[in-house]
Fold:
Amino acid sequence: MNKLILGRYFPGDSWLHQLDPRAKLVAVIYFIGILFLANNWQTYTLLWIFTIVIMRLSGVSISTYIKGVRPLIWLILFTVCMKTLFTAGGTIYVDYGPFTISSFGIVHGIYTFCRFVMIIFVSTVLTLTTKPIDLTDGINSLLRPLRRFKVPVDEISIMLSISLRFIPTLLDETQKVMDAQRARGTEFGEGSLFKQMKTLVPILLPLFVSSMNRAEELANLMEVRGYQSGSTRSTFRQLNWHYRDTVSLGLMLLLTVGLALLREKGLYH
Structure:
């Protein structure tokens, strides 16, 4: 099974499980936004402490989160390398054509790595502690004011929740197809770039067909259950805002104040 846990839900009774999905959605989006306020090791240390505390509060082990990042580690490292090689400043260590390795680039590469990993961790906390149906209701509620501008809020919320839900399923199927191809003698990551691209064809075609079949099955199920696009819908589940939800957003404001204070001490702007 693929180790990526983003999009999965872990049943539990932690404090984060009990929060209103709207509060968690707003907090995660807000956290991703204030990540860009960090510009020195003090601010990133504060953000890491906050992230680790949130991960612990979810009731899921830290090792599970780390395993969930591994499938994306090469993409993260590629982005970090690009940031490092094309950011100049400070002490220059290597200067070869368009590529430059400098103290400024290395620092910003580390910051980029931290930013990516924290975004994945916090987003994973959201999906681990929120049922897909609650996530749909939360998105729908937050986007409800856009209905005045004829925005298809119901369709957007369902689309986003279904996309999150099927990320792990698609990755699990990818792993199964790759294992089946390996059993037939296919070697991935070997040979020239063109040869490696050819080995992806036997993976992409079955995944495309499987995805289309699953989409058709899901559409038929939604139609059988009476779902009609564009029609006014009622909901059986009612979201209730509690005091703990207000406290959670208040903690985000305190985190912002802490970042603003520590940011003034930064050496890299």
Remarks:
- The beta strands are 92-96, 99-102.
- The mean pLDDT is 82.
